[in-house]
Specification:
Layout lengths: L2 E5 L2 H8 L11 H6 L4 E9 L2 E15 L6 E5 L13 H13 L2 E6 L4 E6 H10 L12 E2 L1 H12 L19 E6 L5 H7 L2 H13 L2 E5 L4 H15 L6 H14 L4 E8 L2 E11 L2 E9 L8 H15 L4 E6 L11 H8 L4 E5 L3 E4 L2 H14 L1
Parallel strand pairs: 4-5, 12-13
Antiparallel strand pairs: 1-2, 2-3, 3-4, 5-15, 6-7, 6-14, 8-13, 8-14, 9-10, 10-11, 11-12
Helix pairs in contact: 7-10
């Protein structure tokens, strides 16, 4: 079967995604609306002999180089194709041809392919022993050899990983994430898998009277105020309120169950807030904020537990706490985030990471230099 790539309407794109158990929310048509500083395009793979049936899909975000008409084509956590195909050139060659015709000087993609998994127990043991400084140095509980074959194919086709920053996080989307498996589990089983501190903090929040509710568009300013407070405390650059307003409208407009704002109050004070995103059987903890005041009421644990309960209620298979770094260094400032997520009893998961293909090597080199200087 010879494949070609064509532009899809948002309706065609969404219809294809709805045939799957899940896909990254970064590969939904609505995400192109959220990332409005990029030009977006929905694309689909079809059989050249029968162009109606969509066999794969992707959301492409185009970012122009400064003072240039050419763009980087970016498919975050995508595309959604058959990554187990032993001949990935069938999919990737027509992709590159299409993107080149759209003026792309290079392509960056993030194959949604898991390479390794480490249980919470394995990671905790590695932290206690102190012999490894990086997660990749720890023997994994599971290694996917098909995924390793994907990496070999990509290299043979000229793709390469982009340069890494010094922050411990990937250039674009995180390569390492933390996930809590939910399939064939109930609340009792999930609670039993958590560590003692998490269970105690969930009970403590309930006893203290922390109330977790859902919020709407009118509640986003309160969320954002707490989010900015969190950014100042934890030293990251916050997104503007308008970003979250666009995100809520776009994702909820595509599917009313796609976006949910959670608010945790204690005696009338907003002490924690989160944003959850769902596509099919996969639920993501996307953004979070917490107050430095009243941390003793453990609202962050309470709000996470409510999100997990909701994920179980809709039959989700995975609750995804998103990015972690691969550091196991006890002196690294990112280690606290890993330790918090470890308490859920889930898994550290390594994806294949993002890969680049230069179409114009001269322009790609200029872009690479530009990004290195920014980093």
């Amino acid at each position: 079967m010879a494949l070609r790539v064509r532009t899809l309407t948002p309706e065609e794109h969404l219809a294809f995604l709805n045939t799957l158990d899940s896909a990254s929310f970064l590969q939904t048509p609505a995400w192109g609306v959220v990332k409005r500083e990029w030009r977006s395009e929905s694309i689909g793979w079809v059989d050249e002999a029968d162009g109606d049936k969509v066999l794969g899909a992707g959301l492409v975000l185009y970012r122009r180089l400064p003072k240039m008409r050419r763009s980087l084509a970016y498919l975050p956590e995508g595309p959604v194709i058959d990554w187990s195909d032993p001949d990935l050139s069938r999919w990737l060659t027509p992709l590159v041809e299409h993107l080149s015709s759209q003026g792309a000087f290079g392509v960056r993609m993030g194959p949604p392919v898991v390479t390794r998994r480490w249980s919470a127990a394995t990671v905790k043991a590695a932290l206690a022993e102190g012999n490894a400084r990086r997660l990749g140095e720890v023997p994994a509980d599971h290694t996917d050899h098909i995924a390793l074959g994907v990496a070999e194919q990509l290299r043979a086709l000229g793709w390469r990983p982009p340069a890494q920053t010094t922050s411990g996080f990937a250039v674009g989307q995180p390569r390492y994430v933390f996930q809590l498996p939910l399939e064939d589990r109930d609340e009792e089983a999930v609670l039993a898998g958590m560590n003692q501190l998490w269970r105690r903090n969930i009970r403590k929040a309930a006893k203290a009277g922390v109330q977790v509710t859902y919020g709407g568009l009118d509640d986003l300013p309160a969320f954002h105020e707490l989010y900015v407070h969190t950014a100042r405390r934890d030293h990251f650059t916050p997104r503007p309120l308008s970003y979250f307003e666009t995100m809520m409208k776009a994702l909820s407009g595509e599917d009313p169950d796609r976006f949910r704002l959670y608010l945790a109050h204690h005696e009338g004070d907003l002490v924690a807030a989160t944003i959850g995103v769902r596509v099919g059987t996969h639920v993501w903890y996307s953004y979070g904020a917490s107050s430095t005041h009243k941390r003793e009421v453990r609202a962050s644990n309470a709000i996470q537990w409510r999100m997990i309960q909701d994920a179980l209620a809709v039959g989700a298979r995975v609750y995804d706490l998103r990015g972690i770094t691969d550091t196991l260094d006890p002196n690294d400032p990112h280690i606290g985030l890993l330790q918090f997520k470890l308490g859920t009893g889930g898994q550290a998961v390594e994806y294949l990471g993002e890969w680049d293909l230069p179409i114009s090597r001269l322009l790609y080199s200029a872009f690479d230099l530009y990004m290195r200087r920014r980093g």
